[in-house]
Amino acid sequence: MSAVDFDELRSRFRLPDGKVYLDGNSLGALPTHTAERLYEVISTEWAVDLVSGWNTKQWIDLPLSVGDQIAPIIGATMGNVVCCDSLSINLFKALTACLEVNKGRSLITLEDGQFPSDSYIADGLSQLLGSDRCRTQAIDVTALTPGILSESAVLLLSHVDYKSGSLRDMHTITSMAQSVGCLVIWDLAHSAGAIDIDLEASHVDFAVGCTYKFLNGGPGAPGFLYVAKRHQEVQNALPGWMGHARLFDFEAKYEAAPGIKRFLTGTQSVLALSAVSASLSVFEGLAMQDVRAQSLALTRHFITLWKQSSVLQSHTTIVTPIDEAQRGSQVSLALEDAFPVSQALIADGVIVDFREPNILRFGFSPLYNTLSDAEQAIASFESVLASERYRLPQFQIRSTVT
Amino acid sequence: MSAVDFDELRSRFRLPDGKVYLDGNSLGALPTHTAERLYEVISTEWAVDLVSGWNTKQWIDLPLSVGDQIAPIIGATMGNVVCCDSLSINLFKALTACLEVNKGRSLITLEDGQFPSDSYIADGLSQLLGSDRCRTQAIDVTALTPGILSESAVLLLSHVDYKSGSLRDMHTITSMAQSVGCLVIWDLAHSAGAIDIDLEASHVDFAVGCTYKFLNGGPGAPGFLYVAKRHQEVQNALPGWMGHARLFDFEAKYEAAPGIKRFLTGTQSVLALSAVSASLSVFEGLAMQDVRAQSLALTRHFITLWKQSSVLQSHTTIVTPIDEAQRGSQVSLALEDAFPVSQALIADGVIVDFREPNILRFGFSPLYNTLSDAEQAIASFESVLASERYRLPQFQIRSTVT
């Protein structure tokens, strides 16, 4: 039994009535006090302080102060994380930094099935710089060896794969890569806030992530960037005034601020960052080991019930590892008709999502999902399959966005 | 007399009691209904719709739909503007696009005294690509000739200079540059929402801007990017899933969406974009010629009063052009002790700002500033100078942010 009162934590969120929300791995729920805090930022800070808020309300510090709130959640030292831009833009900064640190090498290694937007940024960089300065190779992450990485400048991996929910061994892989002179960037989009991560102990070089999934920062909330202290002398390839040593002196010549601040570029949304800041306060005082234990308790319960169900056993295959050391905070199942089944589940009030070509994802957010959520999801899932109501015409329609 | 009821427009904003706010060129005021709209987005859309909001509430379309709201304000055709990221990131996309379009050339020309963050991005790109592929030159914009641009891939200029408030002749300069094969990027940060701009008629190639000044989108609100239809086949150097032809298919290979959409990169803040969208609705039905006329009426009145004041005449020099065709929506004055004077004015309730080394900026936002604001500012300015109360110790203290 964990010392954490998860019922109390759940009560801090506004969850939709009568629904089982299992898509916090896509968009986290709204903490009640985040709404209150935003009302305050809008109606008193923006409306009343106006431009002076940059100073009197410390808006200018938000990318760093929110970074410092994220730091303990991902096992980073304060001052090594900044919250800004999108994950993709931060990845561009991290990749260019790796090519600068690892000057003699030009190869970016990533995995087959890497989150597509990560690959796009890497391929885009290769196109921009030319293949002699940057090229990419995709590898099978389960067959990773030091030999494969011996010419790589950097290895880019997702800590938890968005589709399968597989959790990768950060410590072992980082050390394997570094043993052959390859830097490592971890994409924490699907692990930050649900998994106990220790970037410093794992000697990670760079990490990127988003704040709108398990960190509950709101739809499209900003990304974050971790840079190990030893790499903070590197230039930001997207230098902007927010990363200048003396930003309000408006100097013609760029001089990078010391430390992580140089990885800032342009002005950041105060509304967006204030939402992230408020939502992160839910994590204050929580040990991430306890959060991870709760996440595993939830996915374990779901998997146990799945194993007991003959209907589910006959229609679905589990894609997420049964081995808990390799499991993120979701359970992905492969099945025929996954799309219409997802729509029938949603119509039943069980909010899950579908990923091409045949994957249903049940995401468990340890701060607000419950064992009962897992039970209701399984019951609904069995009923949808047994009744075959997913065959109804309304569940076949694919909108452009799903 | 304009047909526009500016008193009614002003009544739509929440302005701070007892203050004369002349810093809308730095951060625009809050439209009352923007606050209401944000409460709705937070408490019903995020809280209740949760992940389905991307579809049911058209969050996914916001960068394009807000772009379409900006379009008429800057004389752009719908479908040629996208609202996303920061101005700096959008400038990076525009500069790399210009180098691709103008393949034989490698020179970025910008002006001495260019808004620093614009220069940093250009210099950063030169460092990233190497000087054989990209270098920058700074020129005196008042001495611009076709000859100077004959080897330039692109000319980057601010439409209104942030410090002096000078407005540049977009049509003439664009055509001069293009006559020698040089593309043009206009930075509209200090003109969008205050000046009547016609990007299409001026045959502009690219433009960037921000939405937190005269567009009132909120502190740190997203930037925007205009790309002329003829350049929309160019690749985005920062390709991300939001710009993919079929983003929710999660394809490993990037395929750019047709049109302006390809210039999107990562996921964007729904809160930030919803604020911009709500604030832009104030512009609906307004002719920008009328907005421009009101802006000129305000700065003209301020300058007339300034000319009539012997105290101001003896202590200050006008930096902003007297010629209205060359004036943006601010009046900048140079004076000794400009910093403590700015602080004394602010203490008096006249919110202005200071820019290094000796500039006071009085920004006039045509949608909510009044002739009376100009009068109160002048009266307070005279009193601060005549009384010499700006010499008080509390007005000398420079915080890190001003």
Question: Could you characterize the architecture of this molecule?
Answer:
The structure is a homodimer of 402-residue chains. With 402 residues, the first copy, chain A, is α/β, with parallel strands linked by helices. The first copy, chain A, folds into two domains: 6-30 and 287-395, Aspartate Aminotransferase, domain 1 (Alpha-Beta Complex), CATH 3.90.1150.10; 58-283, Aspartate Aminotransferase, domain 2 (3-Layer(aba) Sandwich), CATH 3.40.640. The first copy, chain A, is built from twelve helices and 15 strands. Chain A has a seven-stranded mixed sheet, sandwiched between helices. In chain A, strand 14 (353-355) and strand 15 (359-363) form a beta hairpin. In chain A, helix 2 packs antiparallel against helix 8, helix 5 (87-101) packs across helix 6 and helix 9 packs parallel to helix 12 (371-387). The longest helix of chain A has 21 residues, at 288-308. The first copy, chain A, is globular, with a radius of gyration of 22 Å. The model of chain A has no long low-confidence stretch (mean pLDDT 96).
The number of helical elements of chain A comes to 12
Give the domain tally of chain A: 2
Uncertain segments of chain A are: none
Biggest interface found:
A-B, 91 and 91 residues
Oligomer: homodimer
Strand content of chain A: 5-15%
Overall 3D form of chain A: globular
As for the CATH topology of the largest domain in chain A, it is: Aspartate Aminotransferase, domain 2
CATH superfamily of the largest domain in chain A: Type I PLP-dependent aspartate aminotransferase-like (Major domain)
Output the CATH class name of the largest domain in chain A: Alpha Beta
Q: Strands of the biggest beta sheet of chain A: in what spatial order?
A: 4-10-9-8-7-5-6
Radius of gyration computed on alpha carbons of chain A: 22 Å
Number of strands of chain A: 15
Largest sheet of chain A: 7 strands, mixed
Give the SSE order of chain A as H and E letters. HEEEHHHEHEHEEHEEEHHHEEHEEEH
